[in-house]
Amino acid sequence: MKIMVIDDDKNMRRLLRDSLKNEGYEVVEGADGEDGIAKLVDHPDVDLVLLDVRMPKMSGFEAIGEIREITDAPVVFLTALDESYDEIKGLELGADDYITKPFSYEVLTARVRSCLRKNRRFSSEIVKISDLEVDSTNKTAFIQGKNVELTLKEFELLELFIRYKNITLDRNRLLDRIWGYDYEGDPRTVDTHVKTLRAKLGSCSEYIKTIRGTGYRFEETK
User: Fold this and answer.
1) 34 — pLDDT class (breaks 50, 70, 90)
2) How would residue 88 be classed by pLDDT, with cut points 50, 70 and 90?
3) Residue 82 and residue 11 share a domain
4) 209 forms bridges with which residues in the sheet?
5) Residue 126 half-sphere exposure, CB side, CA atoms within 13 Å?
């Protein structure tokens, strides 16, 4: 997935870029409102826009109208801690959410995932990889048209693997993303669920590669 970051603060853009890339997202940057819109014209396929409110040349409030003419991707405003008025106005102008600065890595990634999940453009996605078909809306998987009976956790693992195809996901990240940051159970549950998932996928299980000492990576091999 591709995320556009529009912020005049170079350090903030770097922080956002590094955090989002660490989660597997492709990042496009805009140095201010005008630059962001110009970049967006070249990248109308972005999946989400992170838009700072206070910028020179064109503020986030001014930019969102033009952004909506280019893409219907969700827009998340970035606001300062003492600017609650900005949050309200941003939502009234059509923003999907806002993140208050300063924010933690966990808050950023959680808000981004939530916004993407709520947007119907992504929640209705059906992915086909050779004989495997995954329907995120109905949380179902099929191999050669035959339904594969997966538990919710197994489906979430499969969906996450596909979303971050060709990216190695370590066990701790999988545990955090699927079971939550406050999970206190056995971390080996990841390996157990991957094992049962592979068994149910049959010939398609070869897509899930074990990266020794780290975790797993989904690779399309057929």
Assistant:
1) very high
2) low
3) yes
4) 217
5) 8
Same domain, 131 and 205: yes
Residues 24 and 66 placed together within one structural domain of the fold: yes
Are residue 95 and residue 203 in the same domain, yes or no? no
Domain boundary among 121, 149, 168: 121
- Domain tally for the chain? 2
The residue with greater pLDDT, 105 or 121, is 105
The structure tokens listed for 195 are 């094992």
d(C-alpha 182, C-alpha 185), whole Å: 9
Q: What is the pTM of this model?
A: 0.55
Query: To the nearest whole number, what is the mean pLDDT of the chain?
Result: 86
DSSP one-letter string for the chain: -EEEEE-S-HHHHHHHHHHHHHTT-EEEEESSHHHHHHHHHH-TT-SEEEEESS-SSS-HHHHHHHHHHH--S-EEEEEETT-HHHHHHHHHTT-SEEEEES--HHHHHHHHHHHHHHSHHHHT-EEEETTEEEETTTTEEEETTEEE---HHHHHHHHHHHHTTTS-EEHHHHIIIII-TT--S-TTHHHHHHHHHHHHHGGGGGGEEEETTTEEEE----
pLDDT for 120: 52
Answer yes or no: do 38 and 58 share one domain.
yes
